[in-house]
Amino acid sequence: MGSKTVVSSFLMVSLCVAIFVTQGVAHTQTQPTVPELFPPGSPIDLVKCWSSLFNVEGCVLEIAKSIFSGKFENVEAACCKAFLTLDTNCWPQMFPLNPFFPPLLKDICARIVPNSPARN
């Protein structure tokens, strides 16, 4: 039982470390030099996708908590507004492990912020 707890904790910490990149680090990184991964002018710029969520204080943490718990009551209106402005083409790259999460969060955020236009 103890080893399952350790493995689960390790996986959760690893996932959190992968998700929670600070805004300062994201701005200081240069574009990758491997053209096959992210060619210049790529239609999906992950830094740009994530930056809109990092610009709202606590938004990424709220979304991560929603992913892990399945509870959306902690997602605030400001975070929902930022999420609703994301281009839907960002979703598969931002949430590759759970493709059903972004549409679900979009529907919940549409209820929290009813007059906010969603971007397609």
From TrEMBL:
<feature type="signal peptide">
    <location>
        <begin position="1"/>
        <end position="26"/>
    </location>
</feature>
<keyword id="KW-0732">Signal</keyword>
<feature type="domain" description="Prolamin-like">
    <location>
        <begin position="48"/>
        <end position="109"/>
    </location>
</feature>
<dbReference type="GO" id="GO:2000008">
    <property type="term" value="P:regulation of protein localization to cell surface"/>
</dbReference>
<dbReference type="InterPro" id="IPR008502">
    <property type="entry name" value="Prolamin-like"/>
</dbReference>
<dbReference type="GO" id="GO:0009567">
    <property type="term" value="P:double fertilization forming a zygote and endosperm"/>
</dbReference>
<dbReference type="GO" id="GO:0031982">
    <property type="term" value="C:vesicle"/>
</dbReference>
<protein>
    <submittedName>
        <fullName>Prolamin-like domain</fullName>
    </submittedName>
</protein>
<dbReference type="Pfam" id="PF05617">
    <property type="entry name" value="Prolamin_like"/>
</dbReference>
<dbReference type="GO" id="GO:0080155">
    <property type="term" value="P:regulation of double fertilization forming a zygote and endosperm"/>
</dbReference>
<dbReference type="GO" id="GO:0005576">
    <property type="term" value="C:extracellular region"/>
</dbReference>
